[in-house]
Amino acid sequence: MYISNEGLLVILFVGLVAGWLAGKIVRGAGFGIIGDIVIGICGALVASLLFPKLGIRLGTGLVSEIVYSAIGAVILLLVVRLVRGGGRL
């Protein structure tokens, strides 16, 4: 599989924005640039595994990918918070 430089930049940008949004929604602050990217990319993975099984489709394009990834990242952060015992939601 080959990913162009532009494709890699888009993945990092989507991950950064989605992770930042998830951090703002769940925790009230971001996780730093690297943490936001990692959370956003992991959230995109969670969303890509979970949403098709539920029959949820958000459309195409960059904005829908950011929303898709941010929702996945929020779900990921809530599950991590529950497993770690970090308190209530």
UniProtKB/TrEMBL annotation:
Organismal lineage: Bacteria, Pseudomonadati, Pseudomonadota, Alphaproteobacteria, Hyphomicrobiales
Membrane topology: Multi-pass membrane protein
Subcellular location: Cell membrane
TM spans (from-to): 6-23, 30-51, 66-83
One CC-aspect GO term: plasma membrane
InterPro entries: Transgly_assoc
Official protein name in the record: Membrane protein
PANTHER family: UPF0410 PROTEIN YMGE
Record key words, sorted: Cell membrane, Membrane, Transmembrane, Transmembrane helix
Similarity-based family: Belongs to the UPF0410 family.
Principal location class: membrane
